[in-house]
Here is the input.
Amino acid sequence: MATAMSVSAVTPAAAAVAGPRTMVCVPATARAPREMAEELAAAAALGADVAELRLDCLIGFAPRRDLPVILAKPRPLPALVTYRPKWEGGEYEGDDESRFEALLLAMELGAEYVDVELKVADKFMKLISGRKPDNCKLIVSSHNYESTPSSEELANLVAQIQATGADIVKIATTATEIVDVAKMFQILVHCQVPIIGLVMNDRGFISRVLCPKYGGLLTFGSLKKGKESAPAQPTAAELINLYNIRQIGPDTKVFGIIGKPVGHSKSPILHNEAFRSVGFNAVYVPFLVDDLAKFLNTYSSPDFAGFSCTIPHKEAAVRCCDEVDPIARAIGAVNTIIRRPDGKLVGYNTDYVGAISAIEDGIRASEQTDPDTSPLAGRLFVVIGAGGAGKALAYGAKEKGARVVIANRTFARAQELANLIGGPALTLADLENYHPEEGMILANTTAIGMHPNVNETPLSKQALKSYAVVFDAVYTPKETRLLREAAECGATVVSGLEMFIRQAMGQFEHFTGMPVDDYKFRAIASSLDNRNTMKPRL
Ligand code: NAP
Here is the structure.
């Protein structure tokens, strides 16, 4: 499965040496010097290691007047001083000479790091020759806002930067697809000098979290949402608290959720916290993936040990796995992929058990039921949707003895699934007047009503009156409009959050090989609603 660009090529080397810990750097982008100094102090309070003072963000900046304020000692954090010109993505529009003088002054005032762009590095080197204080490290940087060049081109770039006499190499590129990040990981692993290597934008997000695994010197985390200095930069708090970046090293296993979009998922919060609670050396990240097969071929190292799969990749995942669990194959959707020690990818479906057990328990809690049979047995079970979740619910309900009906926007897909399950198919319009009997169960498995479209609902309140039990796979928000209206109609409602927790418990067991502690896992999950640590939408 491995390709020339495979990360499997770099992991063994990465595992061999653990370099110095990757620093978390908070960009300070305030408009006034005193505020910038305050941002540096705030970064220290967050637990960052260094603050990047972006002098180009200051309005009316006068170096001799302002730098002593910004760099005043004692300083709670080391300072990385950057004065980025417009032609390299910054805000400074003046000449290089004045800019260089400011950077030199920053060095003399004790800045621990100074950043200068590769294009003008030789000129800057001449200026500071014999004047650079020993304790100041010079970063020579290159930014590509369009793409990520090949590994060979990146290696040449590193050599070019090294040749300037830089203490630290910095390369920031842009991902057009997530596999671009693998090229940067290769460069990080093989680089012989301290290097900062990051890939910008949504599809490059993992470079910001996983760089400690590959020996990156530093990663940027914003002070708070809205203060990012580059696209898709996480906050420092997310890096430290959500992704446990201090614990990530060469041996850390990588798990994550593959989807598009994927930024709404609460899985990273849940799984990272769960891993931490049992001391499992792993990190769980969002993978914004366009092409599943290409992604799996590229990140084929044993360290990329398992994946959750969500929209729109669950069905493609069946084809991409070397082996598929019989239940997942029957459903036609894989939501969990595990890389076995022999490198083979094995697909499972934990949605099925998660959803069905949640609905069964919901019914048992509200109705008198026979403890020996499923409360779904013999009931009419209407599934809206015929995608991955729809198939899991339909298959699961059928297994429990329910009579399953499928309704879907694309009627042909409803028919296809209904034929497979052995039941009737309906259009969404048919469903509005569908009331063949009392006590029916409804399961929405479409994304209708999901954040941000919280005012949408798949079925009118009038039609909901026909159902005794309503389940919604959507779990952001926890109470969807569908569930709210169903409860108002007197139905028993079961939240998608319950399915989410239960399918995640199944994944946790596959990922870690450990039995899940139900109580502990639920305690983590119940804190999800109260945590506002989600990443920007990817
Ligand atoms: P999927 O495979 O892409 O299937 C999506 C289904 O929704 C299809 O049947 C599609 O109909 C239908 N659909 C999408 N947008 C629609 C719209 N605007 N109007 C009507 N129908 C629409 O996705 P999936 O993996 O099954 O996920 C579906 C939903 O379940 C998502 O909201 C997901 O977050 C949720 N989910 C929740 C959990 C959980 O743990 N709670 C687990 C899995 C999934 P067409 O066939 O016509 O395109």
Remarks:
- The pocket of NAP is lined by residues 310-312, 314, 351, 385-390, 408-410, 413, 445-448, 450, 473-475, 496, 499-500, 503 (CB under 6 Å).
- The chain has 21 helices and 20 strands.
- The first strand starts at residue 23 and ends at 28.
- The radius of gyration is 27 Å.
